[in-house]
Amino acid sequence: MKYMTSAQVRQMWLDYFASKGHAVEPSANLVPVNDPTLLWINSGVATLKKYFDGTVIPDNPRITNAQKSIRTNDIENVGKTARHHTMFEMLGNFSIGDYFRDEAIGFAFELLTSPDWFDFPLDKLYMTYYPDDKDSYNRWIELGVDPSHLIPLEDNFWEIGAGPSGPDTEIFFDRGPDFDPENIGIRLLEEDIENDRYIEIWNVVLSQFNADPSVPRSEYKELPTKNIDTGAGLERLVSIVQGAKTNFETDLFMPIIREVEQISGKTYDQDGDNMSFKVIADHIRSLAFAIGDGALPGNEGRGYVLRRLLRRSVMHGRRLGITEPFLYKLVVIVGQIMESYYPEVLAKHDFIEKIIKREEETFARTIDSGSVHLEQLLAELKEKGQSQLDGKDIFKLYDTYGFPVELTEELAEDAGFSIDHDGFKAAMKEQQDRARASVVKGGSMGMQNETLAGIVEPSRFVYGAETLTSQLSVIVADNERTEMVSEGQALLVFEQTPFYAEMGGQVADHGWIKNNQGDVLAKVIDTQKAPNGQALHTVEVLASLAVGTEYVLDIDKTRRHRVMKNHTATHLLHAALHHVIGEHATQAGSLNEVEFLRFDFTHFEAVTAEELRRIEEEVNEQIWNAIPVRTVETDIDRAKAMGAMALFGEKYGKDVRVVTIGDYSVELCGGTHVGNTAEIGVFKIVKEEGIGSGTRRILAVTSREAFLAYREQEDSLKAVATTIKSPQIKDVPNKVASLQEQVRDLQKENAELKEKAAAAQAGDVFKNVQEVNGISYIASQVAVSDAGALRTFADNWKQKDYSDVLVLVAAIGDKVNVLVASKTDQVHAGNLIKVLAPIVSGRGGGKPDMAMAGGTDSSAIEQLLASVADQL
Predict the structure, then answer these.
(1) Which residues bind Zn(2+) per the record (predicted)?
(2) Of 301, 424, 809, 820, which residue has the fewest beta carbons closer than 10 angstroms?
(3) Known binder of ligand: residue 283?
(4) Which of the four pLDDT bands, split at 50, 70 and 90, describes residue 57?
(5) Number of domains in the chain
């Protein structure tokens, strides 16, 4: 077995499958594109689902990749086991209807055991297989695998709901008895016992059935196109090749760990308690790659995952004695380790460091507030005479503030409290169950459509054409091919077409199919890509259409021109965002519609009003400069040399189209555009909003819609001018400012009058002092207009020694407001109000010296006041 670096292992995998005719697919962005079933790209096949379900037919049916992936459903195991990670690389080889079982198993065997490749000892390899899959068993035997190394397992069947499914065969590497202290042996595999001896390194999925949840597995139908989907963990392969005890002692992690040693002054001991080092090394990889791919820390979805990883890392840093921000210092180390295949981390390290450091500094303040929360919690327990910290409260500290259980336990024990470990575990399990329930393994795939996948007739989209004559080559009606159709809906493919199929955020063209006399025979209501790339026209048939006949294809020109204006404006907006708020503001989705454009981009905070103004001005400057919009067809390498920017989520072939707008914008784009920016007319931003953690959205309009938006604003301003009796619109701001000043003066005068009235009323209220059990108190109903006036009463009461306790009740509208204030340690205001509030059908709480509540039953106010004495 050869010693290799991680970069060499990855490259050997790709080189091997390239030598077997596989196309090398680049690693995709960690943030899924157009796939709501996934939070993250979590496997090598996740980005290839469109090939497996037949939605798209690949240029080459043989594909290999090294795909960065994130899974966080087992985050608690990171650092505890030899092989759990949040971010990992999945190496894969895939066949879309090309080779199947014999070749796939043969490839795996050769790559692992051949002296020309990994050269693993055959006697160290074990394979599991689905018991009914005798073909896989026989294939392994043919290759020379000892039958005792073949283990049947019922779980070796891959399915995730409707769609492609099938048996799988897994390959394990035996690390020997040193990793089997109880000498259990092969039962570890046979009984699926968690262990560090037999390490799964490869899974070959034989996708041969269309799974149907409504029938037993034995009745699944064979797929019209059988596929191969495999996955091998790079980190596990590297640990075996490098003879490491765990994945963390490899060149993928050790440089990070060494840097943490330097920062902390502590030493990593692979045989000792080194969990904190491992957690930090693992999590910083996920953070660096995810942020580099456009995800940002936040309070929900992907953002929450990143925030949790960062906070967990910071807390483990504190366990190593690191109290200052330090994670951001590790980004460059991550980038250097992965640079050979993922240069983007180093290229974006300044931005990644900025985001991580800012989040670390924010969390430092959060830790302080969490400590205060714990102290308050312990103080309340002590008052109640309780000596144990409840598991749900421990989990809240852990989940909300990032406190590890160990820290909570240490602080609580110092204060004389014990820990409800069982309650914490139960709360943790509830969260994990919720998390797992929300994850679809691999993401579901659609059923293959054999009819659409079988369309192989060529079709060419003609750029610039708005009307042309073309022969009809395919008709699909009711999901079957036919030679003629005379009514209903149908799908049509022509030899060439002016209709743009929806792609890259640009909506589809609509229009008409006519005969040579100009009669409309069908209305085109949608245009999408067929699996083999042809434009698939969805039409409402008005008269007979026949295959082999020529027709006139006429797009809705007005619709196309409106869409083109918005599409070109999107390119201008993208460039303006880079100039105004930074290069990190990359596209995260777009929609170029008829009436508007929508642009999603990565950014860590709301775009300010001033920034939006600058963006809008910059885009309009490019429009008014009347810049020619040019399109160049070239190869991908030359396009990159031109500085062309790839749009998010798009897959580009060898030949691409580059859209240039002077030297202002250069992007890869297959859509349609205006010939000159002046055609756009005017550009106006109508809305900017957040749509998720680290993702913002701009809605904008152009041309006629922009004019109408300005007209609407003008009409609104005129209406305001009329209301405030301002003769000139230009005077409205000054007039409004003057009116605001008058309102502030009146509010101030009103507040002073209220305060005087409250003081006068207070004189009477504070005279009614009662006493019980040595505690003096005032309990009274007062007439006030808002809850703030109750606080004014309390402020006045605090200034003099009227009583120990104050209870005030006010009926304000249909609500009842209650205030309790206390100057004595014998009465906790928050606890007292919790008893009184339910009397008026309310609830509330507060601090020992002040508490407030709201209720709805004003008829019980007298009962509440009368019960105060009973509670003191």
Answers:
(1) 567, 571, 669, 673
(2) 301
(3) no
(4) confident
(5) 6
